[in-house]
Fold this sequence. Notes:
Blueprint: H1 7-17, E1 29-34, E2 40-46, H2 52-55, E3 56-57, H3 64-72, E4 80-81, E5 87-88, H4 96-100, E6 104-111, H5 120-129, H6 142-148, E7 158-162, E8 175-178, H7 188-198, H8 205-214, H9 227-241, E9 244-251, H10 260-263, H11 265-287, E10 290-296, E11 316-321, E12 330-331, E13 352-353, H12 354-366, H13 370-377
Parallel strand pairs: 2-9, 2-10, 6-12, 6-13, 7-8
Antiparallel strand pairs: 1-7, 1-9, 3-5, 4-5, 6-11, 10-11
Helix pairs in contact: 1-8, 9-11, 12-13
Protein name: Tat (Twin-arginine translocation) pathway signal sequence
Organism: Pseudodonghicola xiamenensis
InterPro entries: DUF1501, TAT_signal, TAT_signal_bac_arc
Amino acid sequence: MPDILSRRAFLTRATALGCSAAASPLWSRVSFAAAPWDTRLVVIILRGGMDGLDVVRPYGAPEYAGLRAALAGGAQGGAAELDGFFGLHPALSELMPLWRKGQLGFVHAVSTPYRDKRSHFDGQDILEAGTARLQTGVHDGWLNRMLQHLPGIEARTAFALGHGEMKVLAGPATIANWAPDSDLVMSPQAERLMARVMQDDPAFHAAFSEALMLSADTSDGSGGGGSGAVQIAQFAAEQMRADTRIVSFSLNGWDTHGNQSRTLLPALKSLAATITTLHDGVGADVWDKTAVVAMTEFGRTAAINGTGGTDHGTGGVMVLAGGALRGGRVHGHWPGLAEADLYARRDLMPTGDVRAAAAWILRGASGLDRAVLEQAVFPGLDMGGDPGLML
């Protein structure tokens, strides 16, 4: 097999082997919004189901070594020390200076209300819609609904970057579009068809993961340090230095069914490069007013599978960065990893709703009333007590 696939060859191969277009590395979209307040909010959708137990490793849990030693190379497995219980995946070690400055944090054991079917396609729809379940007639995303309840939104309120669809900012609020240079273009209709046809075909998971890894340097920004992701982050930083206050985009490549110790690396490097590019690009003054929130449609199984990967799960982790957030800690209520503590005896048990964490960040960033957040932005949500995510 050649070391590098051409873009055309990879596109052909991915079409044949893909687990789901929702988890594929080829299509990304970024959206922007300007608003009359000072905090900058960046929402990153991590498509494919990021394994929170590998990214933020609970090596202090007695069960973790038995569940993950073969994957992580030991309980802590070279992870950077966070707080004596959790460690950060080595591929994100360049973000540790932000952790030490209190500008990097995490919310563990969170998920949307989506359960059991574990479809990328449906899970991402629910995540971006901000609803409790799939609902017909709901065509806008929670960021767009937020904009609809804020005064002073201008014509250039929203920008969409990339060739995919960002449902989180879809809706009546006007958006514009920008895309980095790329000759890999797939229509939303084609993505939808691929998602429906291929998402339940486990026989090709390992082959797709291999193709994903080989595509790292030829895709439009989902891996290999993320040249395309960096380009998007650079453009985002430029806009955030001016009038833009809300940015949303996606990073792909998190579907790690096989050989996870290798296939997860490109996505992690892309995420690290994205955050550091945003940090460097906006400058210290703007970074101090910035909240970056990265979330995924679901986590992955607590135990590794027979191909050295992890399968679709439930509880996962949110990644937080920026000077406006209270970092230097892992937020959330830890449920434990004993078999009886797992969801369906296989997944990390969700103890928090990812929408509640997002709602508190929106409230801190924009000042929106809690009733608006619970009834209009995230319909039917109970935000609970303030978890203290924002400074």
